[in-house]
Each structure stands twice: as C-alpha cells, then as structure tokens.
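Researcher: Go.
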Amino acid sequence: MPSRSTRTFNHLSGPAIAGFLVAAPIYLAGCYSGFSTIDEEVGSMLKDASGKLGEGAPPPVAEGWAAVTVSEDVMDDTSPTTWNPAADELSFAAIEKTDAEAVLARLKGYQGTYDDAPRIGLQDSLQWAFANAQEFKYAQEDYILSCLALLIEEHRWVPRVSDTISPRITADANDPTDRGFYETALNLVNDWNVTQKLPYGGEVSAGWVATFAKDLHRDVSGTHEQDNSSTLVSDINVRASIPFLRGAGPVARENLIQAERNIIYAARSFERFRRTFLVRITTEFLGLQVQRSRLRHAEESIEYYDALAARQEALYEAGRTQLFESADAENSALQAKADLSKQWEEYRLAVDQFKRLIGYPIEDPIVISEDALAIPPPSTSMDGAVGLALLNRLDLQNERNKLVDRQRAIRNARNALLPDLDLALSASIPSDSRLPDAGQGWNGLNPDFQDVDYSAGLSFGIPLDREIERLQVRQAQINLERSQRTFILFRDTIVIDVRSAIRDIDANLFALDLQRRNVDIAQLGIESIKAKADRVSVLNSLQAIRQLVSAQDSRDSSFRDVQVSILEYLDRSGQLRVNSDGTLQLLPGMELVPYDDLAIQEPSA
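Model: Structure:
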C-alpha cells in the first residue's frame, strides 16, 4: 500500500507551525456574523410565511430579545435571600368610625378623580393591546420560535464546516535507570471537515487532516541530544454514505418537511389569534362600558331615592303618612348608595383587569370612553355562513393539513420496515504540504492524486427483526384514525358555533328592541309618579325606580350582546379581518352606524 506523503523539515519553528494551524479556524470563525443575520433571516421568514395568507395578515416584528441582567454571583447563588418578617415586626391599626355614613364616605373616596386621566376608546384599546399586551407578545414569540426551529433544521441541510485543533506533548522514559531524561515530542493536529446531507438520504463529507510533529528532546545511546527535526503529514479525505432502501427518499427530509409546514401552521395560528384577540378585547371593553353605564344609572337613581326619602319625611312630619314608610324610603336610599359603592369597586377592578389584558400600566389611571358605534347586523343564511366557515377558517385548514402529516407518518413508518441497503464510498488523498519558513512560502494543499487510497462497499441488512417498526406502523395508523375523528368533531363544532352565532344575533337584536321599549315604559312610570307624588305609595315609587334602572341596564347589556354576537359570527365564519394596528378592518359594505340606528331585523333563514 502506498505510504503517506511525509516531508521532514530542519530548523523549522514550532510557533510558526502553531500559528499556521490556528489561523485556519480563526479565519473560519471570522466568517460567521453576529445575531443580526439571524434576526434578518427570521424577519424575512416571518414576512414570507405571513405573506402567503394575504395582505391582511401582517407578520410580527422580531426584536427586543431578552438579555441577562444579573451578575454571575446572583445567578450562581445557591441560597437566595428570603424576606419574611416576624409578627412583632408588623403592625395593625383599626379604623375609628364604622357607622354607615363613615363607611360610605370612605368608599366614595376610593373612587378618586380622574380629571387629567387619558380617555381611552375601543380603537385606542385595540391599538395599545396589539403593541403592548403580554398575551399578544406570547403569540408573536410562538410564531418566531417556529421560524427559529425551521432555521435550525434548514442549517442541518447546508454544508456544515468544523475545525478541531488538538495539541499534545508526549514524554517517554525509555531507560528507567536514567532518571530525569525523556524523549519528548510535540504533536499538533488540525482536523478540518465539511459535511453535506443529501436530499434523499445519506451524506457526503470532505476533510483535511494535518499533523505536525516535532521532537523536542531525544535520548540517543545514553547521550542526551536536542533534536529540531519536524514532520508534517496531511491527508484529504472524502467520504459518502448513501442509502437505497431504508432511510432513502423523502423520509430522509421528514424533519425539514415538517418544520416548513409548521411555520405555515404558525402563521395561520398567529393570524387566528389576532382575530380572536380583537373579539376578546372588544367584548371586555363593551363590558366596561356597560358597567360604567350602570354606575351612571345608579347615580341617577340615587337622586330619585333621595327625593323620595325627603318627600316621605316631609309627609310624615305633616302627619300624612306613617313612620315606617319614611324609614323604608330612607333605608332604600342608603342601600342604593351602598350598592353604588360596591358597583364602583367592581368597575375599578374590571378596569385594572382590562389594563392588564391590554398591557397598560396598572398604576396609571384611565377613563373608559362611553362613545359607541355599532356594527350593523349582517344579512346571511345558515348554509352560506357555514360554507364560508368551512372554507375560510384558518384553524380548520391547519387541522386538515395535519391529517396529511399523519398519513406521511404512516409512509415513513412503513419505510422503516425495508431492509438496509447502503453504499459507502471513501477516498484518502495525501498532500505534499510545505510549511512556511524563512526561505519559502506555503505551497497549499498540493494533493498527490497518484497516491490515493480509496474504497467502495455495499452493505445489505436483512430485516430479520422489524417487530418494533411494525408496531410503530400500527401506532401511526391509530394516530391517523384519531386525527380524522378529531377533525370531524372540530369541523362539526365550527358548524354548530356558526349556526349558534347567527341565532344569537337575532335573539340579541330582539332583546335590544324589547329593552328599549321597557326603558320607555319605565320612564313613563317615573313621570307619572312625579305628576301625582302625594298619592303614590312608597312601595310603588321604589318599584318604578328599580324598573327604570333595570331596564336601562338590560338595554345596554343587550347592545353589548348584539355587537359581541356579530363579531363572534364574523370570527367563527372566518370573515373577521384585522388591520396591522389591531383595529377592525371593515369589509366591503360594512359601515359603522350610531348606536341609536341599530334596529331589529327580520329573522335569518
């Protein structure tokens, strides 16, 4: 067998060789850029994936990566400090006044004044949420993580370069009686490789191994000598491994195929989240408007209660009524004030929870705008709406495509039942590489093709034991059956939800019209009591006030229910579209109308 190409150098500098061997990996490391390249690739991938959904699905912006903000000592601290003061270090002070008037005064003081607080409407809330909400950022990060997973998988399919430098010093004591003198040598190995996976299985690689050896001290016949002789051995190696049966074909790219499909799923899921998030924020905002309206109604009713209490007290003092009627009117006024304070607390809590939802600073006060615009009810049919949902729903498209993934899993599992038939190729080419010295430069790799070692082999693995693989095929088939049933259930759920949303629109429209009439009737009752206050009992007066407040609250709740049911219909049928800033994108023919213009429609087919 031909020997490797070996060249011996005299008076060769070890540091020069080390610098040469180290220069290669340093140069290669310099070719790699920082994280900005990754950010650009992620941004481009997000843009491409979302672009496949159309212009109405803007991609998230990949920025604001987290960074380490604590010191090494804090990170490695095995006993973090706990703050837990003893009971005698704490204090408790009881309030002085607990009567009803004092408690009401304190409750009223909690309401605070927000004269300088910003006024936030629905559009402002949506824009703020789509820029700052934590849940929205989580959804963005899930999308970005899918892109990073694809980039990782794609990198496995590009030429991957590695370079390993291994310095080693050896010292051998050949003569045990001659203590203190060894044969010492320096060995420096640079192993450089580039590997490429093949698209239908297997991989090919090429490498260069350069070994520099230098004797530092040698014991020759008991005479200790310095030896400056050095050698350099280098080889170029080429290898290939190619399967023909098991592991060959598209199954070899399964992880890459799935990662590329997953990013499409992630783009759809993110856009689906944007739509449902708009519905959720709108629902919560309209709920706040309803609560604020109830506060206003309650405040207006207190005026009626106070007037009734004052009138009954005057009648009692004039001897025209009994004491219990005056006391009942006074207690009803106090109860209304207590209920108002409780409603204020519920409203403040709901505002804080809404600020948390949209990512607004909890400590900053805001005023919820009571301005309201209405989406007119759509004219549609059950069959038409269901057809749109089955065609447009992005999450249903994901589930449908995942059925293909399950079928591909069966194909891949069956591939594992095949016998192994692999082709292995290798070649080793010696290189006459001259190291740089004072008189000459490096002559490059300089391969010697006349002194090549090569081999080729074909291996066949008989499939004697494929029991586990057969069981995995059955697992894949059962998973497909389950996915098919899950898809059918999910599709049927969408159909039910769409049909229910259409009925809810009509039911809520009818309830809104009914509650508007109840408000008119209740207001007539109040006007009638004012006209003949002296002849109306306290019980009837209290009942009229409560009926008016209840009708007003029910009317505002019905308006919210109508708007929410319309948004849910658009979302469930796959027709809801969201602008890039998070606001509702109006469809052709859709116009926002004033609240009072929202009228009842004929029942849908």
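Model: The chain is about 50% helix and 15% strand.
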